[in-house]
Amino acid sequence: MEEYRIKKSSVNLHAIAESGQCFRMHEHTDGDKIWFDVFSADKFIQIFDEGDTYLLKCSVTDLKYWIYYFDLDADYDYYYAVIDASRDDFLKTAADYGRGMRILNQYYWEAIISFIISQNNNIPRIQKIIEALCERFGSEIEYEGKIVGYSFPSRREMKDVSMDQLQGLGLGYRDKYIWSACHAKDDELKPDLDTLLKLNGVGPKVANCILLYGFHHMYAYPVDTWVKRIEAEVYHGRFNKCAYRGFEGFIQQLMFYYYRHCNDSPTKSLSK
DNA sequence: TCCCAGGTGGGTC
DNA sequence: GACCCACATGGG
Length: 272
Prior knowledge:
Layout: E1 2-7, H1 13-17, E2 25-30, E3 33-40, E4 43-50, E5 53-58, H2 63-69, H3 77-85, H4 89-97, H5 108-117, H6 123-137, E6 140-143, E7 146-150, H7 175-182, H8 193-197, H9 204-214, H10 225-234, H11 248-263
Antiparallel strand pairs: 1-5, 2-3, 3-4, 4-5, 6-7
Helix pairs in contact: 4-11, 5-9
The protein binds a DNA duplex (13 and 12 nucleotides) through residues 20-21, 115, 118-126, 128-129, 170-175, 177, 200-206, 209, 222-227, 256, 260, 265, 267-269.
């Protein structure tokens, strides 16, 4: 088992977990203890909140994977500097609220499947469907001698899935889209907007999510119901993302996280 | 019961 | 291009 500490001043796991970019990162509390269970691809990590630091605990061979996953070697100071220097009070507030946000480096296949599932769906149900999918097609993950969950099935593990096997996961009408993605050839899954848009069930929003979260293209800018609301209600149709060229996706992430958390009804649970 | 959810495909005009 | 609407499923 490997242990590794990071400063909370540079990373905000709560914001990341609640920002809708991944669906297998769960925050837990037990008394005054706070920790995160995170699954990605076939890996698992526990991260403990210890005041001003996070303590990462994972298997020795996985530490590099997780440092890359959380984008810990990247420098986000420039992005915040541009925001702080702007005259955009809404974005500055969003940036303060979500300071320590990062764009994760996720397994591209997990992003493709997850964001096809996400269309016209809510986050708790997306999480539930993905868990069911992992349990059906993935394999058990062992951690400290216990089975803690299931891997996200690899593209190889899903290449022969049938429509019958997709029944009972709660996919609804999206089952045929998942089937198509599973049977796609390599050159149909290239990290390119026009290529991804040719996939059945992938439109502009999902394609941009795949580019941003699955391929780390920071310029990708997913426009969902929340971003539409922000552009209409806050900016009255005059938001100019060109001011943030090259990291539009990060800007979108801060705005989404802040606005959704400040405007969603408290009776609706935001996770689980 | 109706309404909504990190939208998209397939029709119209 | 710009609008419509149906689409499965489950929670409030």
